[in-house]
Design goal:
The chain is α+β, with helices and mostly antiparallel strands. The protein has four helices and six strands, in the order αααββαββββ. It has one domain: Nuclear Transport Factor 2, Chain: A.
Length: 122
């Protein structure tokens, strides 16, 4: 991976870690104030929704595959990947195609947009 791809990969990976997902402070550092998320549930979330809901949601184990980025301009990067998501309470596994837009805000990359689309693993 090149440097930008490694940076964005690490940021996406960070957002999948249980300790980060439970920490409003860490989420604040990673998410832009004007975040919009189209969840795999079909719901639309803002940063406020994420900060209110994610820290109290069930613990999820993520396996991320097929990661790549597209540089849209010097300050916006799109990430594209798949996740296998395992709910640690129920044991239910779901699969999603995911895409995020990351914006460089004063030298820090923050998630501006995210979408998860369910798919069936064959």
């Amino acid at each position: 991976m090149d440097n930008l791809e490694e940076i964005i990969f690490e940021l996406e990976n960070k957002l999948q870690q249980p300790d980060v997902r439970k920490s409003v402070e860490q989420l604040e550092e990673l998410i832009s104030d004007d975040l919009i998320e189209f969840g795999s549930s079909g719901k639309i979330y803002t940063k406020k929704d994420v900060l209110n809901n994610l820290p109290v949601s069930p613990e999820i184990k993520f396996i991320m595959t097929d990661f790549k980025i597209k540089i849209l301009n010097s300050g916006i990067i799109q990430s594209l990947f798949k996740t296998e998501k395992i709910n640690q309470q129920t044991g239910i596994t779901t699969y999603s195609l995911r895409s995020s837009l990351w914006r460089n805000e004063k030298g820090k990359w923050k998630m501006l947009f995210h979408q998860g689309t369910p798919y069936k693993e064959i």
